Amino acid sequence: MNNFQYYNPVRIVFGEGQIKTLSELVPEKARVLITYGGGSAQRTGTLDEVKNALKANGEREIFEFGGIEPNPEFNTLLNAADKVQELNIDFILAVGGGSVIDGSKFISLVSGLVDENGRISRDKAWETLLQYGSNVTDSVVDLGTVLTIPATGSEMNSGGVINNTERKAKLPFGNPLVYPKFSILDPAKTLTLPERQVVNGVADAFVHVMEQYLTYPVNAKVQDAFSESLLKILIDEGNTIINEPNNMDSRKNIMWTATMALNGLIGVGVPQDWTAHMIGHEITSLYKIDHARTLTIVLPSLMRELKNSKKEKLLQYAHNVWNIDSQENDDLVIDKAISLTEAFFQKLGLPIKLSDVDLNETAIDLIITQLEMHGMVKLGEHKGNDLDVSRRILQRAL
Ligand code: NZQ
Ligand code: ZN
């Protein structure tokens, strides 16, 4: 196991009916900007529940900014950051999924980058994203979240991904300043999700675990065993939830598993390989394919292409997650594990090939050009996944 420091300051408040605790969690005199997405928070009543909890005590001033898109748009977020300045906001409360939470982290991060006209400087904000958010070192506006879709882990990490349609780019950032102060995880809030979003969430969490696990062994027993457990839970609960969408036990387990999949815990002290995510972000940015669906397309082909360099972990995955008899020939064992992974995704109705989302060979050149433009030319645990490797992965996925 490699050396590491682990720090995670996010207070998790888990359980049904816990939105009421906002009255204790948000400072009593705060000027609060509630951020939300395209309308689900209003339709489902969650927004009203949040506002009522904030009004239950204290002297909070409450403002709203809605319309943050799935794959949150840079320009929309800059408009929200202008509002933070104009209204002198000192607390942002994100109500939604990964897109609203990531977007709110970015609003918080850039809200001090004011130009001579008192507006947020678009250039400085773009530069911040290009520098992975690392150039902001001042304090930022505090942030809390009410999670409505289990998937990304954004509620308990300090990262985000922002889309810029004009520039054809979807780029990640991370900065410890934007760890949420708290996140409320009410599994009952997920009951209104369309099935598509439920299965997307299961798949996204699954691939988050895989990208921190499927590299090479460093004898990190805690991280490996935690990861294998999370994968097995996602397989079990994924199969349960498509047949029993109202199963609250399953909703609870999926929600906490997705948070645990990307709160940093299983990734400490181990090599990581985020190739599927980096290729996936380009596919989303170019073709508007849901984040999770890009991952279920790329991951199986990536496992096949990188079979040799990931051999030991693939065998461990086959044995410990899929219970495949390790006495058989190694190649067969690995092929079986990859096929079972694909079958799991397909059972959830997720695509596993580019053709499943109507993309063909012509898309590959564009995706590769975008990867090059964004400097994604040395991906993987050995930094060995250059553009040729990415191309071969995509060709296997046709
Ligand atoms: O916009 P509204 O109307 O709210 O509808 C949303 C959206 O259309 C809807 N929804 C959310 N909660 C709902 C609901 N509908 C009914 N009932 C509810 N309770 O679901 C749709 C998808 O929401 P979104 O937030 O986009 O989904 P998700 O949580 O999967 O987030 C995806 C984004 O997170 C990024 C992705 O790249 C993508 O931009 N990621 C963030 C990560 C992180 N911060 O660590 C890591 C991930 O790998 C990922 O890249
Ligand atoms: Zn993801």
Would you give an account of this structure?
The protein has helices at residues 22-25, 40-43, 46-55, 74-86, 98-110, 122-130, 195-213, 221-243, 248-261, 275-287, 291-305, 311-322, 330-347, 361-373, 387-396; strands at 11-14, 31-36, 61-65, 91-96, 142-147, 159-164, 169-174, 182-185. The chain is α/β, with parallel strands linked by helices and 398 residues long. The chain folds into two domains: 11-188, 3-Layer(aba) Sandwich (Rossmann fold), CATH 3.40.50.1970; 195-396, Dehydroquinate synthase-like, alpha domain (Up-down Bundle). Strand 6 and strand 7 (169-174) form a beta hairpin. Helix 7 (195-213) packs parallel to helix 9 (248-261), helix 8 packs across helix 12 and helix 10 packs across helix 11 (291-305). It is globular. The two termini are 37 Å apart. This is NADP-dependent alcohol dehydrogenase.
Question: Layout of SSEs?
Answer:
Layout: E1 11-14, H1 22-25, E2 31-36, H2 40-43, H3 46-55, E3 61-65, H4 74-86, E4 91-96, H5 98-110, H6 122-130, E5 142-147, E6 159-164, E7 169-174, E8 182-185, H7 195-213, H8 221-243, H9 248-261, H10 275-287, H11 291-305, H12 311-322, H13 330-347, H14 361-373, H15 387-396
Parallel strand pairs: 1-8, 2-3, 2-4, 4-5, 5-8
Antiparallel strand pairs: 6-7
**Percent helix range:** 40-55%
Extended strand count: 8
**Whole-number total of structural domains:** 2
Identify low-pLDDT runs.
none
- What integer value in Å does the Rg equal? 21 Å
CATH class of the largest domain: Mainly Alpha
InterPro entries: ADH_Fe/GldA (IPR001670), ADH_Fe_C (IPR056798), ADH_Fe_CS (IPR018211), BDH-like (IPR044731)
Protein name: NADP-dependent alcohol dehydrogenase
Keywords: Oxidoreductase
Family: Belongs to the iron-containing alcohol dehydrogenase family.
